[in-house]
Every structure is written in C-alpha cells, then in structure tokens.
Amino acid sequence: MLTKAKPAPAGEVLENVSHPMERFLRADRLPHIWCSGCGLGTVLSCFTYALDDLGLTDADVGVVSGIGCTGRAAGYLNLDSYHTTHGRAIPFATGLAVARPDKKVVVISGDGDLFAIGGNHFIHAARRNVDMTVICVNNFNYGMTGGQVGPTTPIGSRATTAPYGNYENPFNLPYLAASSGAVYVARWTSLHARRLKEAMIEAITMPGFTFVEAVCPCPTNYGRRNRLGEGLDELKYYAEKSVIKHGADPADADLLPGNDVLVGRFIQKERPTFLQAYEHQILDKQHFVKPQAMQNQNHVRLSGATATDGKAAS
Prior knowledge:
This protein is of the alpha/beta class. It has helices at about 40-55, 75, 90-100, 110-115, 120-130, 175-180, 195-205, 220-225, 230-240, 275-285, 290-295; strands at about 60-65, 80-85, 105-110, 130-140, 140, 150, 185-190, 210-215, 240-245, 260-270. The chain has one domain (about 20-290): Thiamin diphosphate (ThDP)-binding fold, Pyr/PP domains (Rossmann fold, 3-Layer(aba) Sandwich), CATH 3.40.50.
C-alpha cells in the first residue's frame, strides 16, 4: 500500500542562480510545460550530465524528438535538435545518422510516439543497426492528450479510453528492442538518476542501435486514474520494487502493477552497424569511392571513450 507523500516545506527563493548544465538548455524556453512530479525533467537532466561527462558539444550531437510530453525535450535542448512529426522521430534520425555519421544521433521520445504510431520505424532501425541512441520515457499512457491507453499500459490499469481497466497486452520494451536487434538495451527509472545517466553514456558511446528505457511517473494522468498518489509516491514504489539484475533475459522484464520492476543493463553486444554493412557489401566489393561523410564518421569527440570502442567514459 502506497502512503501519500507529505508536501515539502516552503524553501528560500534563490536569486541569480542557474542550472549547472545551462549551456545545454534553451533558457528562453523555460519554465517547461511538464507537470509537477513528472520524471521528464530528471531524464533531461541526466542526458545533459551524460553529454558533459563525455565532453560533447552542440557540434557533436543531434537530438530528435517526436510528439508528446517527452517530445518537448528537443525544444528545450540547446543543440542541433529536431521536433518532428508524430511517430516519425526515428526516420528523421536515420536520415541524420546516414548523412552525418560524424554526429552522435539521439532520439528522445515517449512510449506512445515510439511504439504505437512509430513502432514500425523502431523495429526496422534496430534490425538495420542504424547508429543512434533511443531514449524512451515510459509513463504508460498518452499523457499530453489526456491519458489514453498506450502500447505500454499494463493490463487492468485505468485510462480515459479504458475506464474499466485496460485489457490489451502491453509491449515489454527491452524485449522488443533486443529481439529487433538492438546492440545495447537497458532500463532504469527516474529514481535511479545516476545509473540512468551512466546507461546513457554507455549507449551513446556504443556503435549501432542502442536503447534506454526510463520508467517515469505521470501523476497527472496515469497516476491519478490508478490512485498511485503523487510523483514522490511513485518514486517510493520504484525504490521498494526495483530489482537490479544486469544481464537478465529481457523476456522477463514485463512491467505488471504490484510486481517487481526489473532494471539494469540487459544487452550489450557488437555487430556491424548499418553503414559498416553498407561499406563492406557495396563500397568495398564494388570498389566504389567512400563518401566524404563516411570518411569522417570516426571523428566524433568523446572524452574517455571513442565512438568505436563500445566502452563508456568513466
């Protein structure tokens, strides 16, 4: 049984202070639109700290987002960022990754955008092993449009389109990513901020299609309709129920209300990326000249790791 968190006492208002990662943020777009208790701010902060640890700048990274609450991330980042159409973040990112292999391409979007209307693009980008990192914020519903059932809504959970409880089987996202061909698959919650940041570092520095799921509260819609309390109450639930098991079979990573939340690094393996396979099968065998963009693909600047060694920075 969850206990409702007590409101925090009013604190002192600090003047003339800034976010330590402000250089990665578009301050003119703040304050953000995200609800109190939502985990999106934590995920975005983890991402900026990951970029800082890697020594990456706006010259090194391209960020693509779709539509939805998480899709607003692209607009808040002071990087080459693209807020694209619904479900089409991965096709945009694929074009960017192929045309500019010298950049690290990161998709930040939600469970609905990536796995409902965008699901077909996800599985084929993973199958092709396109060199990109996909960070999915999973809050179990379409939060921005009113709390409808999404592709990850658990069985029995209530939503605006399921007032008596959802009866559609949800996706197990790590299992879907792994079975589609992702070379790196991890899941953490917004409670595990430091581990989530480290997973982002590992994913960004590993060549190929990498996937990080961030399980987050949505207290305004999903949490309210399922009587989960405030955002802090959901974080307490993550603290009580999360089980860290690196190398676990993603098939065992289903998320069921009341059950343990399996987190950790599930998959980390190497296989040729989309461009490496293209270079071997087409350019080398047919003796074509390698395009200039592909000649520059190994020059992404990373602190403590290279884009080709598959190891995260310390």
